[in-house]
Specification:
The protein is of the alpha/beta class and about 375 residues long. The protein is about 45% helix and about 15% strand. It has helices spanning about 15-30, 45-50, 70-95, 105-115, 130-135, 165-175, 205-210, 215, 230-240, 240-245, 275-285, 300-310, 325-335, 335-350, 355-369; strands at about 5-10, 35-40, 55-60, 100, 120-125, 145, 160-165, 190-195, 220-225, 250, 265-270, 285-290, 315. The strands form two sheets. Strands 3-2-1-4-5-6-7 form a seven-stranded parallel sheet, sandwiched between helices. The longest helix is centred in the N-terminal third of the chain and has 24 residues, at about 70-95. Its EC number is 2.4.1.227.
């Protein structure tokens, strides 16, 4: 069996970091790592996540270009060239068989440096709309792994593209129903919907839930409402105490290890980030997506449309979001086993429960070459 010396780089957001971590985890499960090094930035989210996982971590200094022509961009350009030099030094010392980039500015320098040193390179694009870094790197890498088939239109180098799905999907697919609803004073036997606005929460979603709590409290199904830590105290102040103790409602600031609860849910309502979609479709869970309109190139809307196209999810734009519309959309699905089954089957058709293994096959193929 091939054992790899691998450098992985990705940073800035969890959407870039968690797929990288899922890939490393799967390589370790298959005993396919001789050594692994993660290259990120000192102040990025990756520095906390990667070091906490006990993975060797080195940093380079880099930042993104400003959208307007400014003097700052000259500094950024100089920093980019300097970071390529630092990346080359790291690569020469580590001697990897392959280098993988999962997005974010940091991966641009690391992967490009590996290319100039004639080391096999792969990038992974999680969204339907490719990020600036991956579009740049697409010209130089050996393979472009994509999580959405729609993303292939973002790259001119069609011969390099391979559809693997998102490694987070395989991580989620392995999770079984585990009665974790008991942790939130809910019954594992009752149908449950979870509504959340991402790790930080989203005020428009929170407002809509607050406005519809009376309806949810009378429903035949259960609801977990995840406000986001920064919003929780404000939400609690705005709602009637009776909803805090309603037997079919649980209001939480955040859920640690959230994927563990997914198999116990009949419906998920929230943002349409790439990681969420990978997990949801791997498990075949119906969804109502409320795409964030604040992300670059509105890629969450494009992500949501890709999943909704075959009936696996509904889309409720934030601009149209009200408490009444939210409840009506949720109850339509939660009160119909037929709709749930159809959406679940459609979701499983899209899901890639062996995404990590598919990506690993790409890596080993390049190394053998």
């Amino acid at each position: 069996m091939t054992k790899l010396r691998i450098i992985v780089s990705g940073g800035g957001t969890g959407g870039h970091i968690y797929p990288a971590m899922a890939l490393i985890k799967r390589l370790k499960e298959r005993d396919m790592i001789e050594d692994v090094l993660y290259v990120g930035t000192e102040n990025g989210l990756e520095s906390k996540i990667v070091t906490k996982a006990g993975i060797d971590f080195k940093t380079i200094k880099i930042s993104g270009f400003k959208r307007k022509l400014t003097f700052e961009n000259i500094k950024v350009l100089n920093m980019f060239f300097s970071s390529i030099g630092k990346s080359k030094k790291i690569i020469k010392e580590f001697k990897p068989d392959i280098v993988v980039g999962t997005g974010g500015y940091v991966s641009s320098a690391v992967v490009y440096a590996a290319h100039t040193l004639h080391i096999p390179t792969v990038i992974h694009e999680q969204n339907t709309i490719a990020g600036v870094t991956n579009k740049f790197l697409g010209h130089f890498v050996d393979r472009i792994a994509i999580a959405f088939k729609d993303a292939q239109d973002q790259f001119s180098e069609k011969s390099k593209i391979v559809y693997t799905g998102n490694p987070r999907a395989q991580e989620a697919a392995a999770i079984k129903a585990n009665d974790r609803l008991k942790d939130f004073d809910l019954s594992p036997e009752k149908n449950t919907v979870m509504i959340f606005g991402g790790s930080r929460g989203a005020e428009p979603i929170n407002k809509a839930v607050i406005d519809s709590l009376e309806s949810f409290s009378k429903a035949d199904f259960q609801m977990i409402f995840v406000t986001g830590r920064v919003h929780y105290d404000g939400v609690v102040k705005r709602i009637d105490e009776k909803y805090m103790s309603a037997p079919n409602i649980s209001i939480e600031p955040y859920i640690d290890n959230m994927p563990e609860i997914l198999p116990d849910l009949k419906l998920i309502v929230g943002r349409s980030g790439a990681t969420s979609i990978a997990e949801i479709t791997a498990l075949g869970i119906p969804a109502i997506f409320i795409p964030s309109p604040y992300v670059t190139h509105d890629h969450q809307t494009k992500n949501a449309r890709a999943i909704a196209a075959n009936g696996a999810a509904n889309i409720l734009p934030e601009s149209e979001l009200t408490g009444e519309k939210l409840f009506n959309n949720v109850s339509e699905i939660m009160n119909s086993v037929d709709i749930q089954n159809k959406m679940s089957a459609a979701s499983k058709e899209i899901g890639v429960p062996d995404a990590s293994d598919k990506l690993i096959s790409v890596l080993t193929g390049l190394v053998r070459k």
